[in-house]
Amino acid sequence: MRREKLAVEVVAAHNLMPKDGQGSSSPFVEVDFENQRLRTLSKYKDLNPIWNEKLVFDISNPADLPYRTIEVNIYNEKKSGNSRNFLGKVRIYGSSIARQGEEIVQLFTLDKRSLFSHIRGEISLKLYITTQEEQSSQSKAVLKSTENEKDRNTTHVQKQKINQASSSQAVQLQQQQRQQQMEQQQKRGNSMETGPNEIKPVVIAATGPAPLPPDPVGPSFQHIVGSGGEFQLKETNPSLGGGMRIKDKTSSTYDLVEQMQYLYVRVVKARDLAISGDAHAEVKLGNYRGVTKPAAEKPEWDQTFAFSKDCIQSSMVEIFIKERGDDYVGRIAFDLSEVPRRLPPDSSLAPQWYRIEDKKGEKGKGEIMASVWFGTQADEAFSEAWHSKAANVHGDGLGSIKSKVYLSPKLWYLRVSIIEAQDLVPGDKGGTIMRFPDLYVKAQVGNQVLRTRSAVPSANRSISNPIWNEDLMFVVGEPFEDYVMVSVEDRIGPGRDEVVGRLIIPVNSIERRLDDKMVVSRWLGLDIKNYNGFGDAKMGSSRFGSRIHLRMCLDGGYHVLDESTMYSSDVRPTAKQLWKPHVGVLEMGILGATGLLPMKIKEGKVGSVDAYCVAKYGQKWVRSRTVIDSLAPKWNEQYTWEVFDPCTVITIGVFDNCHLDKSSGVNNIGGVGVRDSRIGKVRIRLSTLESDRVYTHAYPLLMLHTSGVKKMGELHLAVRFSCTNMANVLHLYTRALLPKMHYISPLTVNQLEMLRFQAMNVVSSRLSRAEPPLGREVVEYMLDHDSHMWSMRRSKANFFRLVSVLSGLIAAGRWLETVRSWNRPVHSVLFLLIFLVFVTIPELILPTVLLCISFTGMWRYRTRPHHPPHMDTRLSHAESVYPDELDEEFDTFPTTRSADIVRMRYDRLRSVAGRIQTVVGDLATQGERLQALLSWRDPRATFLFVMVCLIAAVGFYAVPLRVVVGFWGVYALRPLRFRNRLPSPALSFFRRLPTRADSLL
After folding, report:
1. Per-residue pLDDT for 243 more than 70?
2. Nearest by Cα to 128 from 159, 156, 106
3. pTM over 0.85, yes/no
């Protein structure tokens, strides 16, 4: 009788903590079971190691196995070979171990060893009981006293040999090691690419949803830039436009994506069919089937089916005409070798009548109109076609997987000025007023409710004629379907308000204005029915008429902010009459994603993702189609936006579609809810892009969880920003960033935050009414609705940003101190000579400084950034954040603390700290804009600044300094009537410079 043994297969680990002081680790796994210790080989400098090693243990008493534990520890092997760092552990109970043949790969989240352990990551294991005689692999070593020492000595000797090898040999060893890792990843990637009816390997999280190791990069994405860390931006080299060099960009709308070949089958209608009821058409290509909707005796379907060329497993496509019960009336067949090819802008292929064959293969009387052709995703039929990979999606879910373009509603600021009221009669008991009325006005537009302060008592005003003189601001969207309800209420007591009078005004009847001209005010009569405390009219007699003095207008001169000002994608005013012509075109190809982590469980076995992309710029939202059940989806969709200001940001988010039909067998891991899951997002500031250059990069998708930052995959994009006229673009840098009304009649910071929240609600409610709807969770994530919340991590990040900005001044001060202390005599003598020259000829100071700045900017042109900014985990302090800080950041607001007084103090602290965080961030932003002058982060701004400095240097050299200072003083002290209330061109230029805020997580 064979003895039972415990097999522990160590598959891989993911997102480990760097512990070697160089941003990486050399991990190995040690498994302890019943005083038996086995370990794996070390993976040199790999935070996502793959072992695939089996460790076999003897079981002394199989009956006691459910009461035993298996402890798995991960360590970082140091160079000395005699010490190690703890990377995490997992404790598994024997009751959860399966039999051989029933085992599955399980993903465990690493636990701490003590309170002060700083760890993160997951480990994939496969545990099962086997009765077969297993031969231990060469990679494992029994950690007994003598064998452990022998193994460490062997490792130390091997490292010494590598260190003694020549540089060329070391490079060869590294290349061989990388090649082996890539082969392992490629094998794993091939195992994940299965057909539509195959089953993929399963990974089930043991302690909640957890990710799989990322998939390898597809063959069309070649990395040029070295990895340099798992969170780094990578340059790719996709075959855009089918590998063809397109000279005329306007003639091709798909030159920024890879061509995807599809077989299109269009079924239009049929005639002369021998049927008694409804009929439907079925298109069959190998294992794929597409079915039209049932139709009457003269069926007309006009439906197109698209089959990916990569999935074609047959040489013939068939079209069946079937009745109820799947009995087919006839069929037609097309040989794929005879199918024509079509490429836009060619005309669409005209459908033809084909005589159908019956079950015996003879030509029947009936005919069907159809057309079959090969095309690409540029075909007009692509967006509305039924795709083969959506075979299991039906009903409402089918509409949610197609690509769509959405437009945000045009948003307006509605200003309601409450001036005064006349002839109000507050309610009383018994006809006798026993108190002084506490009157205020409440205005409501949709779900937005604002109140004025209580009317101030005055000796010149009676009780029935209160005065307020207060403005209330709302956000409304076109088309105007809402009403403004204004009610005067009397606060009788705590929680008791009585409506004195009200009126309702349609928003579409309110006057619109484009500037700060005063709108004519109006006296409007109030409905003075007797209202109860809930605002419902009671039956009773009406009192005499009262009226209220209002001034209302729709302000079209503002830009309604619906997103964070740091990541704004549009700065145009609301009124279209104030728009300037566009200065460029932004083109983006959403190529695909790789290494996505599974977000759902399909049929209780397989981890899957139904991913789609959402891009937002200005009023235009685009949503790519949903790729069903793929960890490496390919979209290859291209979109275009008009650019009115280059100092704006486009946001691209990746989501998991959770709205598919239940019949597909796809459900959330939690089993509840229909909110699409976030996978990650990318921001790109247009001013950091060079004109007419195509940027192809793989952007890391990073998400912050309670366990730390995680890489959810990589998003591959191709971006191009084209300028129609460079002079117009450069002129924009001297204009105000926001419309004129923001400076003539500015809104307060509190008003802007409140209005931004209301604007986000209006946008999300309108987009949720589209078909298919764009969920509120998607809109909130794209618009950064929680960016104002307090976070210790963000506060530390902003503080260190400020320290980084001031580091240059601190370094200059230290250098001056060294010069003053004569620690470097040569530097001190040179500085003294230059100082004496400037004292003698002060006219050389300013030209010399400007020339130095210009030459410094030219010198730094060589080292200018060659790729767009991306999420920086170190700048965001996402890698070094403490667990308690993450717990505070993910805490709800208000807090969930039970004690009322603690909740009040805690919320107040977070509110104050959030404002401090914003102030510190603003200070850092101003300093980073100074650094951006010569960093070539915005090439057009740096070029403009360098040219101005060159011209100014020549001007200051030719004109005496005292004359320049005199003219500047006269200009600065000019009377107010000669001053412009808009910011100066220099200040507008400075405010348009990019900052590192774009790279904050």
Report:
1. no
2. 106
3. no
